[in-house]
Amino acid sequence: MNTNSEHQCDVLVIGSGAAGLSLALRVAPHGKVIVLSKGPRNEGSTYYAQGGIAAVFDEEDSVESHIDDTLIAGAGICEKDAVSFITENAKECVQWLIDGGVPFDLDESDKSEHPRHHLTREGGHSHRRILHAADATGMAMQTNLQDNVNNHPNIHFLERYNALDLITEDRIGGDAKKVVGAYIWNRNQEHVESVRAKFVVLATGGASKVYQYTSNPDVSSGDGIAMAWRSGCRVANLEFNQFHPTCLFHPEARNFLLTEALRGEGAYLKRPDGSRFMPDFDERGELAPRDIVARAIDYEMKRLGADCMYLDISHKPADFIEKHFPTINMRLLDLGIDMTKEPIPIVPAAHYTCGGVMVNQQGQTDLANLYAVGEVTYTGLHGANRLASNSLLECVVYAWSAAKDIIANLDKVDLPPDLPYWDESQVTNSDEEVILQHNWHELRLFMWDYMGIVRTDKRLERALRRIQLLQQETHEYYSHFRVSNNLLELRNLLQVAELMVRCAMARKESRGLHYTLDYPEQLENSGPTILEPEKFRTSNPLF
């Protein structure tokens, strides 16, 4: 049957994290905004971000120092213009969050009428420049932004809706390079609807759910990257998947992240026998960039045949730990671990997608009227490795920049005419969801084994062959059955997994987060890995 449910707005924002909500709030005074949320509106990576947001607020710090730290962490392939753009606008955009009510911690030693914000330090930073709300910064930001969005009459939330695909103007007799809306799947009523909009913004986050072990929530399935690619957008640097070094190793807390700020405040990484190992790998010890720390932990686990390593801050006073890390402390106590007295078992886990959809400094993609902000993008900021707490910063700076550009063009773009209905007349309800589950588990397992912290050409070739087989099965399934959440996410993850592997196969060196035993050295001249859809249309019949 055909659906006849159509929504319309000036700006459709797909995603409800820091990037999407910040942009929605900035645009809303000028037009009607619809925000699409795949699950509950707070179920995204922003909510679970612990550490904080980086910006220069200390007089002894400088934007130049923030730039240098970012470039060093990015292992030589950050785009300096993008790094400068984001760091130079960081303070103003973070101040916008403060003015909006985000409760960043204040420095209790400052007894003045207007005390400074407390700043912490994380790996790769040469100064204290991380604003935070205890150890639950993302939760504080998400809650505040949501409250502000909920109170805005021009913003309408569609909760429990999956974005299915972008709609380009050639569907109604126009330009294939211009976006006019999107098909969306109503998870509440299980049917497809459409949204026509002057502008569409992808703010869907990353794709770490492609891995067996991840710190991310279940919604991080690469939807925006896959949709943009299918519609004709270039992607870049998807070989650079950041593995957070310290996720809790516990059967009852699969995705629980232990913030970098623990190491910033003096926690040590230890072997099971209690000895420190990071000084053996890097003179910066526990404050080395994340790729170095993650590889060191992985190496020690494999060398010793250990299930995990340990993070130990118990040498600090108990009241210091309880004050600075109340959320983590309470969660660990619930699991029977007292971090004030004992080390915490940890393993690395997939955490952040450093590459994504290519955008300019206004968040514009390769398609007219399509913008992208946040983890879904490649801006040039992160290079081969992301500096801690630059991710939330990238979200709010590009939300500001993209919103500014959209507002300037709102009156120059007409609302598209009615869009074609989604045709479900040739499909039936599935009676074989078990196929999706099997394919899902297989994908995540071999991506962890073959496209994980350490790679080889053979591992990547094996991964690509398996991805292509699963793509074929999933394409047949998609052609014959009505859509479901698992089907849409698996389809997108398979597409992004292919792009990740192809990017990794193209990089014949080890740099930052991409480490391959076949090419252990860095090339003298290197840059981003860019994939162009047009080159794949003839070679991949499932495109």
Please characterize this protein's 3D structure.
This protein is α/β, with parallel strands linked by helices and 543 residues long. The chain is built from 15 helices and 18 strands. It has helices at residues 18-27, 45-48, 63-73, 80-88, 90-99, 137-150, 223-231, 261-264, 290-304, 318-324, 326-334, 390-409, 433-450, 457-480, 485-506, and strands at residues 6-14, 33-37, 53-54, 119-120, 130-131, 155-159, 161-168, 179-186, 191-202, 235-236, 241-248, 268-270, 309-312, 344-353, 356-358, 370-372, 377-378, 530-531. The strands form 4 sheets. Strands 1, 2, 6, 7, 8, 9 and 16 form a 7-stranded mixed β-sheet that branches. Strand 8 (179-186) and strand 9 (191-202) form a beta hairpin. Helix 1 (18-27) packs parallel to helix 12, helix 3 (63-73) packs across helix 4 and helix 13 (433-450) runs antiparallel to helix 14 (457-480). The longest helix has 24 residues, at 457-480. It is globular, with a radius of gyration of 23 Å. The two termini are 25 Å apart. The mean pLDDT is 92. InterPro entries: FAD-dep_OxRdtase_2_FAD-bd (IPR003953), FAD/NAD-bd_sf (IPR036188), Fum_R/Succ_DH_flav-like_C_sf (IPR037099), Fum_Rdtase/Succ_DH_flav-like_C (IPR015939), NadB (IPR005288), Succ_DH/fumarate_Rdtase_cat_sf (IPR027477). Residues 441-522 form the Fumarate reductase/succinate dehydrogenase flavoprotein-like C-terminal domain.
